[in-house]
Specification:
This is 5-hydroxyisourate hydrolase. Pfam families: Transthyretin. Catalyzes the hydrolysis of 5-hydroxyisourate (HIU) to 2-oxo-4-hydroxy-4-carboxy-5-ureidoimidazoline (OHCU). By secondary structure, the chain is an alpha+beta fold. Helices cover about 20% and strands about 40% of the residues. The protein has helices at about 1-20, 85-95, and strands at about 25-30, 35, 40-50, 50-60, 65, 80-85, 105-110, 115-125, 125-130. Strands 1, 2, 5, 8 and 9 form a 5-stranded mixed beta sheet that branches. Strands 4-3-6-7 form a 4-stranded antiparallel beta sheet, with helices on one face. A hairpin with a 2-residue loop joins strand 3 and strand 4 (about 50-60). The longest helix is centred in the first third of the chain and has 20 residues, at about 1-20. The chain is globular, with a radius of gyration of 16 Å.
């Protein structure tokens, strides 16, 4: 039993370390079912001039999370970013209609020393997001 507790604490520490190492994470919770939304593709783009430049992408895990969405090989820079949640593909996979095939969330990074967390609370006909921690 003690080994399981130590292992769980170690895994939690590693997860926290991974989040701290990457400046951007996302989390999707399904408000209709009350569980995390696994399998949602998420893209990250940075605003440059009049265009959005792709930076990275990922797919939410069983906990509805992507712990590190920002590319490791790039320096985190101040600016405008856009995270796009591909909710239409997700709802098609689960056999459900949705009004929002994509949900773009635009945010501004001013302090590159901080971690930015973008949670998405999702239902087929509505959503909410906020600056998480």
């Amino acid at each position: 039993m003690l080994k399981k507790i130590i292992l769980a604490a170690s895994l939690a520490s590693l997860s926290s370390l991974a989040m701290a190492a990457n400046p951007l994470s996302v989390h999707v919770l399904n408000l209709e079912t009350g569980v995390p939304s696994a399998g949602i593709e998420v893209t990250l783009e940075q605003h440059s001039g009049n265009q959005w430049q792709p930076l990275g992408q990922g797919v939410t895990n069983e906990q509805g999370r992507i712990a590190g969405l920002y590319p490791e090989q790039r320096t985190f820079a101040p600016g405008e970013y856009r995270v796009v949640f591909k909710t239409g593909d997700y709802y098609r996979k689960v056999g459900h209609e949705t009004f929002f095939p994509e949900i773009p969330v635009i945010f501004e990074v001013k302090n590159t020393e901080q971690h930015y967390h973008i949670p998405l609370l999702l239902s087929p006909y509505g959503f909410s997001t906020y600056r998480g921690s």
